Amino acid sequence: MKKILFGISFVALMMNSCKPELKGELGDPSDKLAGMQGTWQISSFVQQDPNNPIKEERDLSDFYIIPGETPYQLTFVKEDRTYTVQPGPGKNYFGTGGTWAFDNEQFPTYLYLYNSSDTLELLLGDVVRESDNSLSIELEKNCYDAATGTSTPLAIYKFNFNRIN
Known about the structure:
Elements: H1 2-17, H2 32-36, E1 38-48, E2 57-59, E3 73-77, E4 82-86, E5 97-102, E6 110-114, E7 119-124, E8 134-145, E9 150-163
Antiparallel strand pairs: 1-2, 1-3, 1-9, 3-4, 4-5, 5-6, 6-7, 7-8, 8-9
């Protein structure tokens, strides 16, 4: 029995060690700033309750996408790092426009939107490259208790946008 087990282990080890060498290069990393450049139109909106044990989500896209009306749009400009908002149906969480930045330009996790009255920290669902046509971001709304200094999450808003240019 030991000889059979040893033989099977030896064959498995040999097969695993005979992998072909990888050839070629991955190429230059994509320009994340150029990936954000352009106009993005909302395609879905989901609200999640982080306090619910099952993390219930509700699709509220019908409030943002109404037939015959131009949906909500965000336009990002790479050169001066500005953004503008073309409001449409639904609540506007992003203001009228301002400037934008990433937490890390090489490996972004968060998108920051700075406008005249607020700074928004949005979690990126994925890194956007120039060839990508979708953008996913999440906005967490919190309730801050000044007496205790704690912040409690109230809702997570998940926005999905499609590139339109």
